[in-house]
Amino acid sequence: MIGFFHDTLYQPLYNGLIFLIDVIPGADVGIAVLVLTLIVKLAMLPLSEKAVATQLTMKQYEPELNNIKTKFKDNKEAQAQAVLEFYRKNKINPLASLLVILIQIPIILSLYYVFYKGGLPEVNTDLLYSFVSKPEEVNMHFLGLIDIGQKSAFLAVLVGVTQFIQMRLAIPALPPREKKDGAPSLKDEMARSLNMQMRYIMPLFVAFIAFTISGAVGLYWTTSNLFAIAQELYLRKKFAFQRAEIENNKKLAKDSK
Which residues of 19-41 are buried (b: 16+ CB within 10 A; e: fewer)? Predict the structure, then answer.
């Protein structure tokens, strides 16, 4: 498994990074990190779009699903069957989002590992393909301002801020607490706790990790987060327009009868 991971993901990404360093003017590793991150993110965009589409569709049908769960709250088997039937009727695949995430995880980890274990400014020639040349120089000073081979508090802060914004977009705030007999439900409290951790603790954690490793990882993480934020906003707008168009067509069809 490790060999497969190394040969199919890590080594190609490492060669991609070295190739970019070699062709970019000034051999700026920071620019190479930006370009490689964007290339990988663009390649995964169709998968990400499917994941967001599934999430938005699930959110759209959330009231109907809550009604089903309430209706069959005393019969879990009937509830599960009713939910599955609802998914089938509305052509929803609840596992699509999970599958997309599982596909992306090894790619993201490989990209992260390239920057974490790349050993730059030294280049491991044993990993290079025959058609990839070793750069004559490796410039670790991003735009001549930040040494991304060292720890960078500035980039770590950017990682935390962009991660916080991304989490706010991807994980919306929960509604007011539900109470039963004057006490919050355990399910509601667990969901609220997880929501708070993802929205507030996660950004602090990744910022700390980015700072303890190197500026290259911080730059990669910041670029990745900014891309994810732009992607989320774009896809939200796109699917909102599509839903509005569908609803408008339904209304026109109804009025024409």
Answer: bbbbebeebbbbbbbbbbbeebb
Q: How far is CA 43 from the centre of its chain?
A: 13
pTM of the model: 0.73
Cα atoms in the Cβ-side hemisphere of radius 13 Å centred on 204: 6
Token pair 């309430």 is found at 70
Distance between CA atoms of 61 and 44, rounded to whole angstroms? 26
Query: Could you give the count of Cα atoms lying within 13 Å of 187 in the half-sphere of its Cβ?
Result: 3
In terms of Cα–Cα distance, which of 162, 145, 157, 147 is closest to 214? Answer: 147
Domain count within the chain: 1
Q: Are 31 and 24 in contact (CB under 8 A)?
A: yes
Domain extent at residue 54: 2-256
Mark the ranges of the chain whose per-residue pLDDT is less than 70.
1, 94-104, 171-198, 242-243, 246-247, 249-250, 253-257
For residue 246, give both structure tokens. 């569908």
44 phi/psi in degrees, rounded to 5? -90, 0
> Which position has the token pair 């500035």?
154
Q: Contact 146/201 with Cβ under 8 angstroms? A: no
Helix axis angle, 215-256 to 153-170, nearest 10°: 20
